[in-house]
């Protein structure tokens, strides 16, 4: 799960504005129609991420006559003589491309795991090279990310809501065929076809952040096909979009205070002498940016929204905290370059109007479909006011509420409402929760652990978003042992920083 980033003339075909229902397992007649898809085998060829292949899946599982789409898949082959199977990996999002992620995971797992498992990456439907959805042009995306994410006046609120509504309309204008079919239930059934195409009897899964939502959905739909399953940075499926945003608002507030404390502990801290002074200076900076965007070295002005985007990005990883110190130090003297660079890093932006992927469009296309409609302007304003009352940095909490604006007018939604996970699987599952994770708060991992009786919660007592591969030998060893041997961590196992 990522922080919701923050379109014109749109001719929308009304027939496409459907109320799409949840995808369910196919009926016997549909299953017969799916046989061609179920009997695929992947044809691997060399590519820049290792080996690549294409998986064919139905556009619409409830009506396979509508044709198919292609899912881009990557593989890093096992290096040893023993082959345990394929480990399918997902970096999160929703909307994050996953082809390159296979190479990253192959480096992060232990050599023993890399010897015995093929690491499989893929771009989910609507993402990257898998029939990418487009809801905004690059220029529109840059404009949306820079737009005021904490509107203060009726005029500002109207502007934000109009731009937000244009995102969903843009999906249907630019990519009308794929846009109504990119929700998580469809992606879950794609995952089952991928398992079959790989020739695996069970699915081995390593999912991060939103990847835990996709993994949980698979646990529910295909409980008998579960192999080694790791869910790192768990999302609680019982929460709606506003509840998730409130949890993130609290998480980022706490993460910023931890960041400030770490700076002070490594005295001298260049951006303040106490958490209170650092927080005060940041509030003053954000207040100034609200009305006076700041110069940068890129010719793009740093707005308040982009400034907060830089802060959010850096709080995802403690490795970025030194960069945030430098960026704030620059910002306090009128140079927004560092914060803009961090913001661009988080949104996969490569220049003033260029992006490395369709991540921003895909995020909304998937997330807004998956969830019930968000409140309208009045409800978002009430939540923004309530959430920011006791917040150390009020603008962070206010922006978290308004980030739900695009989903308040989305053209279709999953008919399945948020609910606790329910799976009949007997397989042991590993859930990883980071104590001070800002984007997927620890309480979500605890909740998912309670909902899945065969799961074990592994805790990292640190900061940052997700834990495996983030520098904790304790976490990495526990996960590698589980992947290699199926050995679950001890109940209540906790890993120190």
Automatic annotation (TrEMBL):
<dbReference type="InterPro" id="IPR029058">
    <property type="entry name" value="AB_hydrolase_fold"/>
</dbReference>
<dbReference type="InterPro" id="IPR051601">
    <property type="entry name" value="Serine_prot/Carboxylest_S33"/>
</dbReference>
<keyword id="KW-0378">Hydrolase</keyword>
<dbReference type="InterPro" id="IPR013595">
    <property type="entry name" value="Pept_S33_TAP-like_C"/>
</dbReference>
<dbReference type="GO" id="GO:0016787">
    <property type="term" value="F:hydrolase activity"/>
</dbReference>
<feature type="domain" description="Peptidase S33 tripeptidyl aminopeptidase-like C-terminal">
    <location>
        <begin position="396"/>
        <end position="495"/>
    </location>
</feature>
<protein>
    <submittedName>
        <fullName>Unannotated protein</fullName>
    </submittedName>
</protein>
<dbReference type="Pfam" id="PF08386">
    <property type="entry name" value="Abhydrolase_4"/>
</dbReference>
<comment type="similarity">
    <text>Belongs to the peptidase S33 family.</text>
</comment>
């Amino acid at each position: 799960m990522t922080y919701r980033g923050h379109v014109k003339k749109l001719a929308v075909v009304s027939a496409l504005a459907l109320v799409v229902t949840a995808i369910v397992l196919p009926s016997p007649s549909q299953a017969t129609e799916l046989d061609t898809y179920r009997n695929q085998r992947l044809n691997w060829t060399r590519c820049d991420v290792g080996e690549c292949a294409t998986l064919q899946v139905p556009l619409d599982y409830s009506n396979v006559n509508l044709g198919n789409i292609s899912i881009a898949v990557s593989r890093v082959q096992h290096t040893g003589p023993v082959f345990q199977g394929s480990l399918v990996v997902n970096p999160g999002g929703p909307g994050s491309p996953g082809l390159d992620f296979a190479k990253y995971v192959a480096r992060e797992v232990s050599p023993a795991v890399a010897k015995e498992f093929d690491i499989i990456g893929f771009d989910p439907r609507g993402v990257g090279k898998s029939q990418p959805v487009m809801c905004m042009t690059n220029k529109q995306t840059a404009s949306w990310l820079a737009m005021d994410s904490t509107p203060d006046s009726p005029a500002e609120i109207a502007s934000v809501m109009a731009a937000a509504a244009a995102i969903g309309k843009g999906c249907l204008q630019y990519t009308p065929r794929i846009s109504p079919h990119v929700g998580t239930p469809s992606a879950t059934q794609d995952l089952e076809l991928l398992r079959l195409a790989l020739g695996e009897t069970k699915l081995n899964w390593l999912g991060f952040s939103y990847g835990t939502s996709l993994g949980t959905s698979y646990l529910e739909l295909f409980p008998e096909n579960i192999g080694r399953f790791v869910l790192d940075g768990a999302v609680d499926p019982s929460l709606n979009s506003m509840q998730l945003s409130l949890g993130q608002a609290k998480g980022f507030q706490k993460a910023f205070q931890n960041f400030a404390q770490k700076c002070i502990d490594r005295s001298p801290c260049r951006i303040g002498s106490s958490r209170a002074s650092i927080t005060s200076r940041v509030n003053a900076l954000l207040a100034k940016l609200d009305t006076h965007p700041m110069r940068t070295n890129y010719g793009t002005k740093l707005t308040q929204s982009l400034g907060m985007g830089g802060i959010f990005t850096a709080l995802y990883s403690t490795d970025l905290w030194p960069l945030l110190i430098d960026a704030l130090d620059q910002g306090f003297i009128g140079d927004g370059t560092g914060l803009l660079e961090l913001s661009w890093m988080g949104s996969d932006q490569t220049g003033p109007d260029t992006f490395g992927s369709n991540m921003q469009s895909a995020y909304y296309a998937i997330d807004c479909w998956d969830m019930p409609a968000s409140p309208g302007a009045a409800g978002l304003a009430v939540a923004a006011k309530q959430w920011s009352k006791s917040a150390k940095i009020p603008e962070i909490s206010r922006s978290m509420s308004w980030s739900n604006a695009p989903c308040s007018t989305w053209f279709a939604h999953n008919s399945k409402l948020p609910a606790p996970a329910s799976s009949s699987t007997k397989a042991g599952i590993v859930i990883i929760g980071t104590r001070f994770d800002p984007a997927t708060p620890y309480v979500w991992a605890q909740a998912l652990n309670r909902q899945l009786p065969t799961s074990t919660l592994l805790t990292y007592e640190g900061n940052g978003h997700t834990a495996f591969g983030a520098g904790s030998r304790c976490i990495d060893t526990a996960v590698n042992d589980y992947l290699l041997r199926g050995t679950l961590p001890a109940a209540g196992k906790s890993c120190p920083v």
